Structures are given as structure tokens and as C-alpha cells.
Amino acid sequence: MPGSGDLPALDPVAEGVAPQDGGGAVSLGHWGAFRAEVRGGRLIRATPLGGADPDMVGAWPELVHSPRRIDRPHVRRGWLENGPGASDDRGRDEMIPLGWDEALDLAAGEVARVQDNHGPTAILGGSYGWSSAGRLHHARSNLRRFLAASGGFTDQVGNYSWGAAAALLPHVLGSVASVSHAATSWDSIAAHADHVVAFGGLNPKNWRVTSGGAVDHPLPDMVARAAARGCSFTVVSPLAQDVPAGLEATLIQPRPGSDTAIILALAHEALTSGRADTGFLDRYTVGHDRLAAYLTGQADGQPKTLDWAAAIADVPASDLRALWQRIRAGRVMLTASWSLQRGQHGEQTYWALIALAAMLGQIGLPGGGFSFGYGSMGSVGANARRGYVPAFPGLANRGMQIPAAAFADALLHPGETLAFDGRDITLPDLRMIYWAGGNPFHHAQDLGKVEAAWARAETVIVHDPWWTSTAQRADIVFPATTTAERADIGGTSRDRHVVYMAPLLPPQGQARNDRDILTALADRLGCRAAFDEGLDETGWLRRLWSQSIAKGQAEGIEVPDFEELKRMGIWDVPAPTEPEVLLGDFRADPMAHMLPTPSGRIELFSKRIAGFAYEDQPGHPVFHAPDEWLGSAESDQFHLVTNQPEKQLHSQLWQTSAGMSGGPAPVRIHPGDAARQGLADGQVVRLHNDRGECRATLCLDAGLRRGVLVMPTGAWFQRDSSRDGSASSHKALELNGNPNVLTSDRRTSRLGQACAALSALVRIAPMDPAPENNT
Ligand SMILES: Nc1nc2c(c(=O)[nH]1)N[C@H]1C(S)=C(S)[C@@H](COP(=O)(O)OP(=O)(O)OC[C@H]3O[C@@H](n4cnc5c(=O)[nH]c(N)nc54)[C@H](O)[C@@H]3O)O[C@H]1N2
Ligand SMILES: Nc1nc2c(c(=O)[nH]1)N[C@H]1C(S)=C(S)[C@@H](COP(=O)(O)OP(=O)(O)OC[C@H]3O[C@@H](n4cnc5c(=O)[nH]c(N)nc54)[C@H](O)[C@@H]3O)O[C@H]1N2
Ligand SMILES: [Mo]
After folding, report:
1. Does 108 share its domain with 253?
2. What global pTM score does this model have?
3. Is residue 35 in a domain?
4. Both 605 and 719 in a single domain?
5. pLDDT per residue as tens digits for the range 511-546
6. Residue from 57, 312, 376, 670 whose mutation best tests the ligand 2 pocket (most atoms within 8 A of CB)
7. What is the three-class DSSP state of 114?
8. What distances in angstroms separate CA 558 from CA 443, 550, 564, one per listed residue?
9. Can 435 be counted among the known catalytic residues?
């Protein structure tokens, strides 16, 4: 099992990136920027720029020229012969190649039929997924624009990454500090913090990826700098690998799902030891008295002591007392990975951490307070001037929105009510699924349920460059180009660069750009002017870039014109003069920078949330045990943690040498647990529970907490076809190691209705007899 990457030596890194030197056009993926070498009509090499991972970037030629590319439009035989209708045959039926015009006519006819006959909410077109980097050709954004222009659709709100936080934080912090890139910069931590506590850890594998695509990958260096200045670290995670190699950190390994109890107990300790900063609490927060009544046990008879938390987390109470001693003095930065809100009651972990930071009174001070996600995504906490990567405009949608993770419920239970963040949503009557730029058979939980939901649709249309598990389950498939086959502008507000993404190759096979496919459909449906506004690719890129030029004029920043950007390849946006400090303005002047919450302050008690009258939401942070966790497990059950893959972006890159397609995906287990189960390193095993079963390759890891299994997401979903065709095929063994056949589709709570994949119990057994490996 490859390691996650060491901390770098402490020489200044910040290599200047000069794409114009040495030739080769530049492009960008979510996993970093690269220079391309094209010979004889083939991309033969992609060289990483600015610290991107060489294996991931180096796999671009394999992606572009993959035998798994979709070469032309295809239509499912059963759909072609019988017309639209619910079907269990998706993914099994033959896919028949069709000419572009014929396929486009069929797709346009279906969009018109469904919108005309069933109204503006009958197409599920939220199309959640990362798509590719680049603003203009972002597949999901284009699809939503097209479906809005053509008559409306059911959109998905929120996401799988940050769903619970996205619902909670606006109530607690207001909108400004609630976005997933808001964080105190690492420059500030490196200069000021005495101690960092990272719940969920700081796993460098996650820093390889930034949504939108970053050129810099500064975090390993930043952590090393803070440590070199004398900042100490505590990592709270079941997995020792979540500590960057080379960092000396104190490791606490709790039961998954118990962090909220630890955090609340630290807050209780602050309160009862007299350490709580009452001046801060009075001036900047509301409701700390309500929280105090819960912490002390006045409200429910249970004081939230360190001993209470130690029993829940199953860690020595002395470890928590030592942690309290480390954070009671000095400048302390508290952080939690995004994974911690991707479990049942995930909202509470974030709220509790904010409350603890409020007690310590350092919110808004350099290097102190809290920020989420340093361990989750590249460039969280990078020093970047935001807003110079232009935004692709959407259009008003006459349809409706459902929470992103609730799409299977919508397909299965039309007309039912879903409680979400204080509202009641009536689930729409969906007739059609249209997906471009996402892979729900990768990202959704309880894939057996998703298969059943998918079968309810009358028509499914998918665009993808590759025959993914989702593309295989479509009625109409359009082959999309990859990033390498088109011009674009890319980057992310977390990073200090904008990239002109040069077209490296002509479209492969008969592939077309997503927006060209949608333009052709819009043409047929009479809404082309609304969709493309008469602009071609270059026209759009110029228009997008003019936003950045105008912003620069307003802010006194010199922005290159479009031709100049093309020539440069990568533009370095001038860095802000001061490192960012989350809520620094609010601390400096809480009246002038009032938070957009009902009270204008940080809400440790939220009347609004209490007013939703959800029985698990008393209105302040609270610990609830998940339904599935080690606290309720039988002796042979394990807690399955599904984390992000090391050298893939979700399901992307799986099919390349960087990815996991060489065998069933790895599952980490403690050697003691493996021995108890009679299992050996490298052995192919079967993970199973009531929801399903999948294969995995056993990987011994002495750094893992006993009773926990860690398995990355990202394997392409594939049922064992030898057991297929039966009524119970939605339960048939999954071969490639996709853990979402095991995870539960129960949501974080009614507040967030977000993905709660990380609360799942499973059993493990030897794989006997071994089925054919038909990856
Ligand atoms: N169990 C479990 N499940 C999880 C998670 C977890 O922690 N545990 N994490 C969740 C999270 S945080 C996320 S963000 C999701 C990610 O889930 P997704 O975003 O759905 O995963 P990707 O594999 O990135 O899917 C992107 C798809 O877009 C396609 N694509 C790439 N470029 C283009 C293009 O130019 N045009 C078109 N049309 N398609 C393109 C790719 O081939 C791929 O099929 O997974 C979630 N699922
Ligand atoms: N290489 C790579 N990097 C990525 C991605 C990728 O696909 N590949 N995806 C990107 C995306 S979309 C997102 S949203 C982010 C996600 O960022 P995260 O959600 O933070 O990432 P994960 O790897 O899912 O989880 C981080 C760690 O949390 C720990 N953990 C899990 N459950 C618990 C718990 O209950 N308590 C504690 N204390 N720790 C726990 C696990 O050991 C895990 O290694 O990653 C991004 N970065
Ligand atoms: Mo994500």
C-alpha cells in the first residue's frame, strides 16, 4: 500500500511556474496543472506543474486514449425497441451505436415530451458531480443551464462534500464564513499557532486535489513550517495515516462517530475550570447559557465530562485530560475534516467545534479559533485573492430543488414529504434522469437502493467521456470530450492562479463538447438563444474573462487581456497583502461586521433551529450516537470508514495506472483483527451487511484502530454477472470494491439531509470461492 506522501524538507518551495519556457501547452485538472507533450496526434506525456502529483497527472494520456472511451452515441436496445418506460434492464441490455443526428433527435424529443407532459419538475437534472476542471465546459453547469432554458428541472441543492455544514453553518455563522473555502490561512497558523488540533486528521492524499484545479499545493510545506516554528499537533482519527508522515503529532484514536462527545467534553472542561472566555462569549455569541445548561447536565442530568466522553469514544480519559492541558493555554487552532460532517448527526460535530473555539475565545485572532477542512482539500488555507476565476452563469429554473443526497428517495417516493432545514419538500414525480459530469453509481450510498430507484425512470440520458458504471446504465449515451480536447479557463478561488487551458488535441472518436451537445439539443427545442446567447467557445471565454478584467479594474489589480492570458498559460493573481483570518473583521468590530445570523453573532443556541421542532435538534450542539457505530456493534461487526482514494479523484482515474483497477480496492484492517478473523495481508475478502456485499483486497495496517475498516471510494461499480438476472440482483456481489453497496442512505439529519456515508457497520469474511475477476 503506498504511503500518503511525506512532509517536504524545509527549503522554500514555491517553484516559479513558467509554462512558456520549454514549450508544450498547459492545461489543468482538479488534480493539478500540467504541461502537455503531443506527438503524432497523441498526448504522450503530461508533466506536473507546481507540485501536482506525478502519478495522477501522468495518467492524462491513458485517460484521453483509454480503451474505455465512448466512441460515439449509443442507445439501449430495450429503449430503442420499446420506447421510454421503467426498466430493470439498464446496465444489462446491449448498447447500440447510433449516428449523432438520430441520437440527438431522440434525446430532444424525450426532453420535450417529459417537460410538456409532466411539467418543469419531471426531469432529475441536478447532475451532481465534479465534472472536469474549466469553467466554460463544466458539464454539470451546462446541463443545468440547458434544462432551465428548455423548460425547467429538478435540481439538487447542497453536495456530498459539505452538505451538513452547508445547511448548519448559515444558522450559526451566517453565509460569509459558511462557504467551504473560508479558512484562516496557513501563513497565519505558521506564524502564530502554538497548537493545532485536527479532528479527522491532515491526510496529505486529500491535498492532491482541489475543486476547480490548483497550481500550488502548499499545504505539506505549510504544516512543516508551523511545526518547525514550534507549533505542536494533535490528530484525532482512527487512522494513523491521517498524520502526515514526518510530522510528530499526538494521536488519539476514538471510535468513529464519537468526536462530538470529545469536543463537548473539552468545552465542558473550559466552562467548569473557569477557562471559558466569558468576555468573548458575551460580546460575540448568543446562547452560551443554554449550551452551558446542557454541558453541565442541568438540562439532562448528564455532565459532559472528559470521563463521559472517554467512555463514548473508548479512549483513555487520561489522553483527553492531556489534550485539555495542551489547549487550555496558548494560541490554538481547532480544525475538523469534512469527513466528520459526512456521518449521522454530522452537523453537531461542526457546531460543537465552533462552541469549543468560542469558549477558548480566539476566534478571529491570527492562527487561532477554528477553520474546517485543512485536511480535506488542496489549498484550504492557501493565501489567495479570491474571485479572479470567472463564474459560469446559470439561468433561473422553473422547476424545484431537492437535497443532493435525496435523489433516490425522490425517484422511489414521489409525492412524499421530506423535512429539510425547516421546510417540508414534496418530492417530485420524476420521469427522466439526465446526468452529465457526475457518477452516481460511484457517489451515492446504498447502491442497491439506487439501482431500484434508477429503474423507475422512463428515460436516462448520460454524457461522459468513458463507459462508467453510470454511462452503462443509460438509455441514451453521448460521448463527451475530455479537458484535453477543448479550450477553457480554469482555477479555483482557493488558489492564486488562473489557467488558460489550451486545446491539446482534436476531439477523440466522435466525442463532442458537452456544451455543443446541449447546443444541438437547444437548437431542436427552440431555446438555443437562451442557452448559448449566440456565442461560440471563444466568444464565451472572452465574455467570462471580461468579468475578471472588470473586477481587476474595480480593485486596482492589473489583469492580462484574453490574448495575453492565452500567451501566458498561467496568470499569477497577486497575493493579498495580509494572510486571511477567518472572522477577523467580525472580531475587530462586531457591529460593523455583524454576522448575517438572526442575532448578528455566532449562535451557540439557535432559536431558528430549535423552532424547526426536530426532536434531535435542541437548538445547541448535542451528542447523539449514530445508529450504526462500534457502540452498538456485535462482536464480529466492524465500523467501515470510506475515505477518499489516494491517487484517484473519486471514480476518475480508476481505469489508469494511477488508479485501483488492478484488483478489488484495498481495505485496511488492524493485524490483530485480521488474525482474529483468520485473514492474511493481500487476500481477497468479502465485506457484507444487510444492504449488500463487495470484494476488497486486505491490507494490514497496524496504525488503524481495532474494530475499524478503512476503504477508499472510487472503484467502478460492477455486479457479479454470474449471479445476475435473478430477482435479488440488486444484492449481487460487487466485484471491484465499491463500498457504497454497504453504506447507508440514511441522511445526517433532517436539518442537513446530507450524505452520512461514514456511519456504517459491516462484517468481513474470506472470499471463497473466488469469482472470475471481470474488471
Ligand atoms: N461512501 C462514500 N461515498 C462518497 C464519499 C465518501 O466519503 N464515502 N464522498 C462523496 C463526495 S465528498 C463526493 S464529492 C462524491 C464524488 O462523486 P462524483 O463527483 O460523482 O465522482 P467523480 O468520479 O468525480 O464523477 C465525475 C464524473 O464526471 C465524468 N467527467 C469528467 N470530465 C467530464 C466532462 O468533461 N464531461 C462529462 N460529461 N463528464 C465528465 C467522469 O468520467 C466521472 O464519471 O462522492 C461522494 N461519495
Ligand atoms: N486524493 C484525493 N483527494 C481528495 C478527493 C479524492 O477523491 N482523492 N476528493 C476530494 C473531495 S470531493 C472531498 S469532499 C474531500 C473530502 O475530505 P475528507 O472528507 O476530509 O476526506 P476523507 O478522506 O473522506 O476523510 C478524512 C479522514 O477522516 C477520518 N475519519 C473518518 N471518520 C472519522 C471519525 O468519525 N472521526 C475521526 N476523528 N476521523 C474520521 C478518516 O480516517 C479519513 O482518512 O477530499 C478531496 N480530496
Ligand atoms: Mo466531495
Report:
1. no
2. 0.96
3. no
4. no
5. 999 999 999 999 999 999 999 999 999 999 999 999
6. 376
7. helix
8. 41, 10, 12
9. no
